[in-house]
């Protein structure tokens, strides 16, 4: 049976899924806990990557080498930087770029050395299922800020996501980062700290990869303020609903 890895950075994003895991079995490797079991009759491994590209890459490699997973799906939160990408929206990744990769002048800025490429693409078929799952989940949920009076539902976007070992928490640094990326032809919808690393590992192993991020902040001066509250009150419910819909849509 095909085994699907569901990888998250923060434990809040995993808790709901873990509670539903049938016949859970925990194994620890390289400082990470891996939960094997079944969700809706599909075999899954749930894992927490911790934060940043190195942590995400080692976790993805362990999922492949030690647990033999056949595909990896990442669920997490991110800063929204694309036009119209708001807190409470969701971005499904089409591909990834590392915004802190810079081996110029030896290689073009953002190019990953010795790969001859800058962006790493997500798997189109798995991404289409994830997009469908995200739309279905958001349609079935109350608006994220209903308690604050807002009635708008979160929207689902698709597109490029930029990853790097930096929590982007000032309008000035977000502006600079975006201006530099756009000058090189990359227009991300969101910034986060893990996705591009997992995309690169999956590229190395020829494994399908897809990723979804709930927008927790706008990567500006207030990015840190609401972060823990947002993850607790909104993002973890999104993560659960989206992954639940995705797993149901996977072939058994
Ligand atoms: N407060 C957390 C740390 C979160 S770090 C703790 O103490 O555990 C931020 C996490 O959210 C990373 O996993 C990253 O991928 C994502 N993220 C959300 N907003 C981001 C932003 N503006 N810039 C970079 N990463 C962001």
The parts where pLDDT drops under 50 for at least 5 residues are: none
Radius of gyration, whole Å: 17 Å
How many strands appear in the DSSP assignment? 10
Global mean pLDDT: 94
Bound small molecules, deduplicated: S-adenosyl-L-homocysteine
Overall outline:
globular
Measured between the Cα atoms of the first and last residue, the distance is 7 Å
Q: Figure out the total of helices.
A: 6
Main β-sheet, spatial strand arrangement: 5-9-8-6-10
Major sheet attributes: 5 strands, mixed, barrel
H/E series: EHEEEHEEEHEHEHEH
Q: Classify the helix fraction into a percent range.
A: 25-40%
How would you describe this protein?
By secondary structure, this protein is α/β, with parallel strands linked by helices. The protein has a domain of 175 residues: Rossmann fold, CATH 3.40.50. It is 34% helix and 28% strand. The protein has a five-stranded mixed β-barrel, surrounded by four helices. The chain is globular and about 50 Å long. The termini are close together. The model has no long low-confidence stretch (mean pLDDT 94).
What is the gist of this entry?
This protein is α/β, with parallel strands linked by helices and 252 residues long. Helices cover 34% and strands 28% of the residues. A hairpin with a 2-residue loop joins strand 2 and strand 3.
Features:
binds S-adenosyl-L-homocysteine, five-stranded mixed barrel, Rossmann fold, 28% strand, single chain, 252 residues, alpha/beta
Indicate the topology.
Layout: E1 3-8, H1 12-20, E2 22-29, E3 32-39, E4 42-48, H2 53-65, E5 71-80, E6 90-98, E7 120-121, H3 124-139, E8 156-163, H4 171-183, E9 190-192, H5 195-205, E10 209-217, H6 227-249
Parallel strand pairs: 1-4, 1-5, 5-10, 6-8, 8-9
Antiparallel strand pairs: 2-3, 3-4, 5-9, 6-7, 6-10
The structure holds S-adenosyl-L-homocysteine.
């Amino acid at each position: 049976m095909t085994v699907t890895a569901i990888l998250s950075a923060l434990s809040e994003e995993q808790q709901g899924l873990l509670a539903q895991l049938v016949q859970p079995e925990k194994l620890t490797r390289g400082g990470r806990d891996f939960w094997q079991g079944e969700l809706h009759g599909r075999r899954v491994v749930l894992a927490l990557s911790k934060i940043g590209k190195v942590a995400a890459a080692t976790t993805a490699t362990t999922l492949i080498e030690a647990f033999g997973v056949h595909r990896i799906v990442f669920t997490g939160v991110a800063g929204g930087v694309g036009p119209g990408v708001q807190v409470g929206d969701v971005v499904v990744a089409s591909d990834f770029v590392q915004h802190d990769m810079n081996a110029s002048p030896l290689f073009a800025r953002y190019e990953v050395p010795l790969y001859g490429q800058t962006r790493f693409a997500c798997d189109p078929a798995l991404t289409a299922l994830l997009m469908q799952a995200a739309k279905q989940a958001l349609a079935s949920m109350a608006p994220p800020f209903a308690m604050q009076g807002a009635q708008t539902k979160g929207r689902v976007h698709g597109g490029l996501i930029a990853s790097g070992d930096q929590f982007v928490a000032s309008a000035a640094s977000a502006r600079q980062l975006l201006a530099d990326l756009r000058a090189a032809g990359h227009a991300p919808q969101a910034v986060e700290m893990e996705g591009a690393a997992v995309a690169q590992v999956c590229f190395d192993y020829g494994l399908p990869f897809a990723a979804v991020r709930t927008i927790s902040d706008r990567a500006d001066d207030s990015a840190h303020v609401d972060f823990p509250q947002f993850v607790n009150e909104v993002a973890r419910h999104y993560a659960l609903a989206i992954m639940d819909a995705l797993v149901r849509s996977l072939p058994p």
